[in-house]
Structures are given as structure tokens and as C-alpha cells.
Write a structure and sequence with these properties.
SH3 type barrels, flat, 15 helices, MetI-like fold, alpha+beta, six-stranded antiparallel β-sheet
């Protein structure tokens, strides 16, 4: 045996030299053995796996923090800055963000060129939300630092959120109350703005709910006439058509009354206006009812800022979109996302569980079953847009077209179910997520001990009774895991929905007071598509960028809430069947 760490004094002469040589040759061999031991223990792989996990967590945390910061600060009121440029131009706006850029040196004055050259050819510029799109034709303007001659925050500048034309930044030059012009009075304008918004809501209620209901009934009577003619012929259906025409005449009389009432309220509303003046002196005179919210951006206090912040959040989750979806709320998109996800779960749960039960408990294990399992696993890797094309072709055109021909021939050629709708979107996403549910359910079923099945069968229970009362209750937590994964994926999918029902704007919810009350044939809005539309399809991407972050934050919160609810149900089921307590 060779001694590596020999503590004895070295021998003299040839024996001592031989011992030194032996130690010199043995030590490297020991280091190699130590390295081999680390590799065998998996230390390098452990560090690599740990580093990869840490990197992934850091990336997710950075992404979530970016979304949280940008989304949470979107609605916080910011000051208005009046900027005078070196060329004499004066602008006013809210500072949005800044960046470093390289200006074109040939277009700069001599003194500015020297200053920029001293900074290695770079300069800093700021993006201002100048708003006033109806006057400027744009909402934003970049201003470089070397262009600024003076900057201030005037106390008399207001930030106006309008029903149309977006934001206005400027002063209040005067107002007209009940047809009488008068100087600006903060208390009077605040009182009249609340009353004007009530008139606006009254007009909208008359036009959308009452007149909309009349139009729905008139259209239904028209379809009843056409249905009677198609089924009975023109002569036999003549009494039905005559009665329907009388009913339409009554409805049209009600329509005229409602329209007159709306015109009366609108005529009163036109007598209340406010004169707004932008920084350059140009003026506009909108009706006070068109001012959704306004405040003195440079003199407002902290408590008022907090109130505006939460008022904007409430509007965001409870109102309809406005101004090309870049302002207002996303209530229709929230409703559409939740309704579609729940419908998807209703469709995917029975199909996924029944398929997994057959494959695991009934099917004869062999080549055919293996091919089916491989096919199911491969379906999980099919691009989602392919499911959208299939859903449009099979569900909307084939099934929906057949339903229209059988049950709604009077509405043709206008399709009822033969187009995209929330029903077909839910079924398409159910097909998209059913492989996840099948795989998770099979794993949960296989985890149930075989002894429990055999014990149940030995007690005289049938196979179905064993599955229903023994296997399924024990597998429910695993099945719920599959449902959670399906919900998480389905709620965030956008590509297939663009083909089978989702639209840019659908303020009418798929539920109302008209039979059959739940209208699964209607198109709907979705938070994921709303993000795409605002971020990439709006007339001004800068105007939609804040809404992208805040909608992303809301979508993440909604998915987390639905998944947390499912996880709580899963844990309660697990505790119930493990301890017998619910």
C-alpha cells in the first residue's frame, strides 16, 4: 500500500530521493481521482441544474416585476409640463419616458453640435403626451434636451379625459351653463359635470337598452314572418304576417317615443358646454357630458391623486372601452375571458376524463392503445392556430351552417351559428387542451393502488362501481391538476380565437334579458386579444402601451385567481378522501 501523506522524515541518500519521486508521481493521481469522485457524485451537474433554475426564476421575477410596475403605475396622475423650445415653439404635455439617441449632426446648430459632440454624439430626449389629437393630429412628441429653452408646471393647466378624441391638455377659458356664458367657476363646473354625465348615461341607456330592445323585437317579428312564409307559403301565412305587421307598427311607435325622449335630453345637454384652450391659444367647445374626468394636474393633492387612481381602476374593470380601446374599461373582455374559460372546462372535463378512463380501465392494452396514447401526446404539440383553422372549418362552417339550415333558415343568408362565436371558441380550446387533461387523468388513475380495486371487486362491487366509488374519488386531485393546467393554457390562448369568435369590440355581452338569455352564438372580447389589438393594431402604439401593461397585469391576476380557486378545491378534495373530512 502506498502512503500518500507520509509524515515521517525523509530518508537520506538514494532511498530519500526514491521516496520524493514516489510522492511526486502519486499526488497527481490523487487529484485525478478526486475529480473523478466529483463527477461521479454529480457536483458539476448539480451546479448546472441549480444555476439554470436560478436563472429561470430571475427571468420570471424580472418579467413579473416589469409588468407589475408598469401596470400598477399607469393610472397614477402625473404633472403637466409647459416646455418652451429654442425655436420659439411652446408645447404642453405629460412626460411619459426618456431615452438616449444619436441625433443627425448635420441638422443641428453649431453650438448644439459642439455640445453633442462632447457627449460622444449622443443626446437625451423626452417623450411628452401632448394629447389634443383633434387639434394636433398626434398624441405624442419627442423633445431633445438641447431643444429646451424653458420648462415650468403652470397651476392653471388641466388634464381632461374625454369620451371621444382622447385626452386634452390645456386651460379652461370659460363655460356655458344652461345656455348662459360665464367665467370658469370650479364648484359650478364640478356640479354640472356630474349632472351632465348622468344625462349622458341616460341617453346611452335609452339608445342601447330601450331602443335596442325595440329593435330586437322588430327583428324577431320580421324573422317570424319569414319563418311562417317558408313553412306555410305566402297565402297560408298571410294572417300571421298581418298580425306581425301590426305588432311591428306598435313597436315602431314606441321607438319614435323613445327617440324623441333621447333627443329632448340631448337638446338639454347641448346647452352645457365648456371652452378649453390649448397652450398655443386654440380653443374647442365640447359638451360638458363628454368630459369623463378632469383635474388640475399640477396642484392636485395626494389624497385627490389616490382617489383618481382608484377611480380609474374601477372604470377599467367595470366600464366599456373607448377611444379605439386605448382608454376606458375592459369589462366585456373580462366577461368574455371568464365565460369562455368556464365553458371550455365544462366541455373538456367529461371528454378528457372519459377518454382517460377508457384507455386506463377498459381498453385492452396493446398496439392500438399505444398508438392512441402516442397520438394524444402528439396532439399537445400541434400549433394552436391549426386548432383555430379546424374550429372555423368544422364547428363554425360545417356544424354551425347545418344548425342554421335546420333551425334558423329564416335568418339566412345572415348566419346565426355559422360564424365565429363563444360556443365554437370554447369547443376549439377544449380540443386544444384535452390532451393535457387525458394525460393528467391517466397518471392520476394509474396512481391509485391496484389493491384498492381488487378489494372492491372482492367485496362484490362491479367494475363501474369500483371506478365510481373507489378509483375516481382517489384520482380527483390529479384530475383537478389537469384541469388547472388546461385552464391556464386556454385562458391565455389568442391565435385560435382570432378565427372562431373574438373581435376587437363587442360591448354587448353574450347574456341579456331576451330569450334564450345566454347567446352562445355571439362574438366576444378576450383580454389576450385585447392586448394584441391595443399594442399592435391601434392608431398610436404609444397611446396603447400603458393599456397593454395594465391589461396584461389583469389577465395574469385573473388566471391566478381561477387557478387558485381550482387548487383550493383540489386540496379540499385531497383532504376529504385522505381523512374523510371536507
Amino acid at each position: 500500500m502506498t502512503i500518500i501523506n507520509d509524515q515521517r522524515p525523509p530518508a537520506s541518500g538514494a532511498a530519500g530521493l526514491a521516496g520524493v519521486a514516489a510522492r511526486d508521481t502519486v499526488a497527481p493521481r490523487s487529484r485525478r481521482r478526486y475529480s473523478a469522485d466529483l463527477s461521479a457524485l454529480g457536483e458539476p451537474a448539480l451546479w448546472g441544474f441549480g444555476g439554470a433554475l436560478a436563472l429561470g426564476i430571475i427571468m420570471i421575477a424580472v418579467f413579473l416585476m416589469a409588468v407589475l410596475y408598469n401596470g400598477a403605475t399607469t393610472f397614477w396622475p402625473k404633472p403637466i409640463e409647459r416646455v418652451e423650445l429654442t425655436d420659439g415653439t411652446v408645447i404642453a404635455g405629460v412626460e411619459r419616458r426618456g431615452t438616449i439617441y444619436r441625433p443627425d449632426m448635420a441638422t443641428l446648430p453649431e453650438e448644439v453640435r459642439a455640445q453633442v459632440a462632447a457627449d460622444d454624439g449622443f443626446a437625451y430626449r423626452t417623450l411628452y403626451q401632448t394629447a389634443n389629437f383633434d387639434l394636433y393630429g398626434d398624441d405624442f412628441r419627442w423633445v431633445a434636451d438641447f431643444e429646451v429653452a424653458d420648462a415650468a408646471n403652470p397651476a392653471d393647466f388641466y388634464y381632461f379625459e374625454r369620451q371621444t378624441w382622447g385626452v386634452f391638455v390645456g386651460r379652461i377659458a370659460g363655460m356655458t351653463i344652461d345656455g348662459q356664458e360665464m367665467a370658469y367657476d370650479p364648484a359650478v363646473l364640478q356640479r354640472e359635470q356630474r349632472a351632465a354625465r348622468e344625462r349622458f348615461r341616460e341617453i346611452r341607456n335609452i339608445e342601447r337598452r330601450e331602443i335596442g330592445g325595440i329593435n330586437h323585437l322588430i327583428e324577431r317579428e320580421r324573422l317570424n314572418q319569414r319563418r311562417a312564409v317558408l313553412r306555410q307559403g305566402e297565402e297560408a301565412a298571410a294572417p300571421v304576417v298581418a298580425a306581425s305587421q301590426e305588432r311591428i307598427a306598435e313597436l315602431q311607435a314606441e321607438f319614435q317615443e323613445l327617440q324623441a325622449r333621447a333627443n329632448e335630453v340631448r337638446a338639454v345637454d347641448r346647452r352645457y358646454t365648456v371652452t378649453l384652450e390649448e397652450v398655443g391659444g386654440r380653443q374647442i367647445t365640447p359638451e360638458i357630458s363628454q368630459i369623463v374626468r378632469y383635474y388640475p394636474a399640477n396642484t392636485i393633492g395626494l389624497l385627490d391623486k389616490v382617489g383618481i387612481y382608484f377611480a380609474r381602476w374601477w372604470e377599467f374593470v367595470s366600464a366599456e372601452p373607448r377611444e379605439a380601446n386605448t382608454q376606458g374599461g375592459v369589462l366585456p373582455a373580462i366577461f368574455g375571458t371568464v365565460a369562455m374559460t368556464l365553458l371550455m372546462v365544462v366541455f373538456v372535463a367529461p371528454f378528457g376524463v372519459i377518454t382517460a378512463l377508457y384507455l386506463r380501465e377498459y381498453a385492452r392494452q396493446g398496439r392500438v392503445t399505444s398508438i392512441v396514447r402516442i397520438s394524444v401526446n402528439n396532439l399537445a404539440g400541434v400549433p394552436s392556430i391549426v386548432y383555430g383553422v379546424f374550429g372555423l372549418g368544422f364547428f363554425a362552417y360545417a356544424m354551425g351552417g347545418t344548425i342554421d339550415q335546420l333551425f334558423y333558415p329564416e335568418a339566412l343568408p345572415n348566419p346565426t351559428f355559422g360564424k365565429g362565436g363563444i360556443l365554437w371558441a370554447s369547443l376549439t380550446l377544449a380540443l386544444l387542451t384535452v390532451p393535457v387533461v387525458i394525460v393528467a387523468t391517466e397518471e392520476a388513475l394509474s396512481a391509485v393502488p391496484r389493491s384498492m380495486r381488487e378489494g372492491s371487486l372482492a367485496c362484490g362491487a362491479s367494475k363501474w362501481q369500483t371506478i365510481r366509488y373507489v378509483v375516481l374519488p382517489k384520482a380527483l386531485p390529479g384530475i383537478m391538476t389537469g384541469m388547472i393546467l388546461a385552464m391556464a393554457r386556454g385562458a391565455g390562448e389568442v391565435a385560435p380565437l382570432m378565427l372562431v369568435g373574438v373581435v376587437k369590440l363587442a360591448p354587448a355581452l353574450p347574456i341579456d334579458g331576451f330569450y334564450p338569455f345566454i347567446h352562445l352564438d355571439r362574438s366576444f372580447m378576450h383580454l389576450g386579444f385585447h392586448i394584441f389589438d391595443v399594442g399592435f393594431q391601434s392608431r398610436n402604439s404609444e397611446a396603447g402601451k400603458p393599456m397593454v401593461f395594465v391589461t396584461t397585469l389583469l389577465l395574469l391576476a385573473l388566471i391566478v385567481a381561477m387557478n387558485a380557486t381550482a387548487i383550493i378545491i383540489r386540496n379540499r378534495l385531497k383532504r376529504k378522501y385522505a381523512t374523510g373530512q371536507f
